[in-house]
From TrEMBL:
It comes from Sipha flava (yellow sugarcane aphid). It is found in: Cell membrane; Cytoplasm; Nucleus. It holds the Pfam family ARD. Pathway: Amino-acid biosynthesis; L-methionine biosynthesis via salvage pathway; L-methionine from S-methyl-5-thio-alpha-D-ribose 1-phosphate: step 5/6. SUPFAM superfamilies: RmlC-like cupins. This is Acireductone dioxygenase. CDD domains: cupin_ARD. Its EC number is 1.13.11.54, 1.13.11.53. It is a peripheral membrane protein.
Amino acid sequence: MVQAWFMMEGWSGDQREEHHKQPPEYVDLDTLYKLSLVEYFKVNELDPLNDKILTSIKNERGYTYEDEITVCKERLLNYESKLKSFFEEHLHTDEEIRLVLEGSGYFDVRDINDKWIRIKVVPGDLLIIPKGIYHRFTLDTNNFIRAKRFFVGEPIWTPYNRPADNMDCRKEYLSLITSC
Ligand SMILES: CSCCC(=O)/C(O)=C/O
Ligand SMILES: [Fe+2]
């Protein structure tokens, strides 16, 4: 079961640690969706690419593009600067869809109350981060993740760092989440 929790406010130190509140406050999947519109699906981690859930999500949502990203020192070009930009609070004009194949990491998303929720992802976790939500990504202390990326049409990975409140996708996201 995927784990998600509210992060401690004002944490310091290594971004790759868990940074729980004291006591920890976990977030279940329904609450995660209500507070952020982030969607989660479990795919068979032993054979993720042939999983029926994945096939139906790809068909229903019309993902026409897919590739793989490996985040680790040895395999990612400009590793340090990429890690830094992944961890800048940002949004995208399209959904960010990731299926973890190997390794692990944390996606942090800002909820409707502007609180950080940290989502730990491991093999078989498929996360759909809606367009217009502020979020960031970090490796955990294992320093390795390999994930599949999906997209509808030509991929656009451009991050828009906060503040990006005047962007249409941000306004649409806020109107969607406040009407749920
Ligand atoms: C495990 S995917 C790397 C992070 C990423 O691609 C991204 O866009 C983070 O916001
Ligand atoms: Fe992103």
